[in-house]
Structure formats: structure tokens, C-alpha cells
Design goal:
It contains six helices and seven strands. It has 176 residues and is of the alpha/beta class. The chain has a five-stranded parallel beta sheet, sandwiched between helices. A two-stranded antiparallel sheet has the order 6-7.
């Protein structure tokens, strides 16, 4: 049996797909066959030995369609290794690392459905022009003006790569 892994994601402003692609690339470099697919395009989990799923954060929670994906597939996810990650701007704040334990609780609704073998928490990016909702765009503009966040790409590629590397034994435990 091949070590086929699905890396799937949900995003609003486009930062999470890059994280998913980086995770997929690292897993491929570590002897896995990997498909990186948006959650809304996943038809079945039957051909995968393991699943890595991630979502952008909005209002301190995974996006609704991401939680729905877990709900819809929770029986299948319980019988194969499942890892979860989130991408959020809180970690990009000047003191964002101080909130890591609180941010981890934002995955509790996912953990209530399926217990992940590992969780990854990553900073995202901010490009206000990508924010569609007017009130959200205004909030981000004010937050930038007051120094809460800075626009730009805040993803830590090394942290993402290291997390993906540590997934290898966790994914192999089930797929061999």
C-alpha cells in the first residue's frame, strides 16, 4: 500500500493554500504521495491513508465549511491518521506567540469530532485588498493604523516545514 496523504484546506483571503502546499511538498519529500486539494473539492477519502486538514481562522474559529468537512467525514477520519492546522493573524501580532495556548483552543470544535495526531498553528498574512467584507476591511485598516498588525506575508515557512516533517512517523504508524 502506498503512503497516500490528502492535504486539504479552506481559505478566505488566500494565505492558507500556500501553507497547505508547503506541507504537501514537505510530505512528498519524505516519501509520501500527496494530493493538495481545497476542502470543497474533496469527493472521497477512500484512497488516502491519512489526512492533513487546515483552515483559516475567522472569529476565533475554523471556517464553517472546514468544520462541515470534518463532520461529513468524521467516521473516515477516525480510522486513519488525521492532523489539523490553522492559519491566523493573531500569531502575526507583535506579541502573538503569547496567545499560542489560547489559539490552540480554537481547534477544540475539531478535536470534539476527531482527535488529531498533531496540530499546527501558523501565522498567515494580511493584504487588506483581499478582504471582501467592508466592515472587516475597515477593522483591519484600523488595526494596522494602531499597530496591532502589519500588512504582508507573516507565514513562517521553517515552522511549517518542521511541523510537516514531524508528521511523518505519525502518518506512517497508521499507513504501514
Amino acid at each position: 500500500m502506498t503512503n497516500k496523504i490528502l492535504v486539504t484546506y479552506s481559505s478566505r483571503t488566500g494565505w492558507t493554500p500556500g501553507v497547505a502546499e508547503a506541507i504537501g511538498k514537505t510530505l512528498t519529500e519524505n516519501s509520501f504521495q500527496v494530493d493538495v486539494i481545497p476542502m470543497l473539492e474533496v469527493q472521497s477519502l477512500s484512497t488516502y491513508n491519512g489526512v492533513v486538514a487546515g483552515s483559516a481562522i475567522r472569529s476565533r474559529a475554523w471556517l464553517p465549511e472546514a468544520v462541515q468537512f470534518i463532520r461529513a467525514h468524521q467516521d473516515e477520519l477516525r480510522v486513519r491518521p488525521f492532523a489539523a492546522f490553522l492559519v491566523c493573524m493573531t500569531l502575526a501580532m507583535p506579541s502573538g506567540e503569547n496567545y499560542r495556548s489560547q489559539i490552540s483552543t480554537w481547534l477544540d470544535p475539531v478535536r470534539a469530532l476527531v482527535k488529531p495526531v498533531s496540530t499546527g498553528l501558523f501565522a498567515g498574512g494580511l493584504d487588506i485588498s483581499r478582504v471582501e467584507n467592508f466592515s472587516d476591511r475597515l477593522m483591519f485598516k484600523l488595526s494596522v493604523m494602531f499597530g496591532v498588525w502589519k500588512e504582508g506575508d507573516h507565514r513562517d515557512w521553517n515552522a511549517i516545514h518542521q511541523w510537516a516533517i514531524q508528521l511523518k512517523p505519525l502518518l506512517l504508524n497508521y499507513s504501514e
